[in-house]
Amino acid sequence: MNTESHRTWYRRFMPVVENVAEARHGVRVVLDSWAVPKDTAETVALIVTELAANAVTHARRPGRTFDVGLTCDGGKTIEIEVFDPCPRHPTPKPYDPEATSGRGLLLVESLSDTWEVRERECGKTVWVRVVR
């Protein structure tokens, strides 16, 4: 890993729906400043949008936040972390063409190289790796 190019970004958000767009915007701005190719940046922004929406919708706790972090190794790998205070693990739902929601994790699964849920003392982190 080239440590000179290793970059990180982290931001904490209150779990309100408006902050899903704010998280997406922050990700786009930072990835642009890191000169990440547009197609990769849009993929990462979409994944963050889905995970942030899940955090706001399913993991909201009074007085708690959800956090978004990005790491770029200076090469081709971008790692995404979205932390929320709910210990319940998200699980992809089977595809239903009539459903109006429930496709977020299917998108994350299809757009990422790998993803997993990591338990934390107070909640969980959904970790995703995207290789450009």
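The record above closes out task 2.4. Task 2.5 opens with a second protein, given below.
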Amino acid sequence: MNTRTRLAVLTPLLVSSLGLGAVGLAVSSAHAAVPDASCLVKTQHNGAKVTVNGSGFKPKTKVLVEGSTGKTFTANVTGSGSFGVANLPAGSYTATQSGTGEVSCGSAKESGQKDAQGQFRKGFKDGFADLRQDCKQKANPGLTAVDPNYEKGYTAGAAQAVKQFC
């Protein structure tokens, strides 16, 4: 095959493959999840019902909340990008906004675990910072009830600071 024939045959194939690749990229990016969007599920009414709350969504739009039970619910997103749907059957949920991908909200149990981990991290950070300053534990006179996970994290953070600085 001479050079001119090869060029005539291969050029249309190359151009069409580049064009289709760009179309595929545009389609896949149109369904990407909102980067800052998140949601969580909290138990209410002794575990029989749950509330799904979300934040970081595109403001003043709608979100489709779908449960593992197969039921779907529509929620209005506020101007600040948050939404809430209450009195849903217990289960796992996802939130999908038009033109974006879905965000997994999980279940009430998973949300509780995330919250417990967050409380522990916050306690660890605070305990570490308090003891790092002067090796003396600070009293918290304004606190009436402390989350047990925060307290465990505070104790662990304080112990780590004592090891490193005191």
